[in-house]
């Protein structure tokens, strides 16, 4: 706020109908103002002060930064991914599906049955991490492919 453009406030239920703001210190938690009469003239000599809870201040980003953030928000690294069994299976190649579906390894059979039986496979479920680890360990998926299939 500059001295050239003082802020005039219309007040209700106050001792005087208007006030002119002189200074606001948001970080310090105070503002100084003059009470004004109906004609807009000061009615106090030294100004009045109001204290309030200080506000944390941060530099405001420029318009280009705001537009860029809106158009391309940063990825959320902690977002939970929930996939259906069909989504998981459709991301696998035919060779990967055949290897999983025809495996006689009990651990792979359990993973396959769990994937098929699940309503959704969630990235925050420890069973998902265990199943991926088994498919990687048994050579059905590489680490890169597991990241793609379950992403």
Keyphrases for this structure?
single chain; 151 residues; alpha+beta; four-stranded antiparallel β-sheet; two-stranded antiparallel ribbon
What does this entry look like structurally?
The model has no long low-confidence stretch (mean pLDDT 84). This protein has helices spanning 63-71, 85-91, 94-102, 106-117, 126-137, 143-149, and strands spanning 7-10, 18-25, 30-36, 48-51, 82-83, 121-122. It is an alpha+beta fold and 151 residues long. It has a four-stranded antiparallel beta sheet with strand order 1-2-3-4, with no helix packed on it. It has two domains: 7-51, no CATH class; 82-149, no CATH class.
Short account of what is shown:
The chain is α+β, with helices and mostly antiparallel strands and 151 residues long. Helices cover 37% and strands 18% of the residues.
Annotate the secondary structure layout.
Blueprint: E1 7-10, E2 18-25, E3 30-36, E4 48-51, H1 63-71, E5 82-83, H2 85-91, H3 94-102, H4 106-117, E6 121-122, H5 126-137, H6 143-149
Antiparallel strand pairs: 1-2, 2-3, 3-4, 5-6
